Amino acid sequence: MTPCRSHQAVYNEGSGKTDRNRTYYLVDIELDLRQIISWGTKTRDQVEVELGDSCHRVFLSQGQFNKLDRKLRDE
Prior knowledge:
Elements: E1 23-30, E2 35-43, E3 55-60, H1 62-74
């Protein structure tokens, strides 16, 4: 199975410059299997650009990610 990939550009307000040090909190979901296939954090430089046909990447806030991470690690 190939990993899901996605991309999102973020700009500093008013400056038009990309913020390459921002941390993204994300979950990759295999839509056909209805399963979480990965979760983690990445910086803008690490986020892949292409998205597989049956995969979807969901970006979360830091608080949402930490709560999900705790629950998934406890199971």
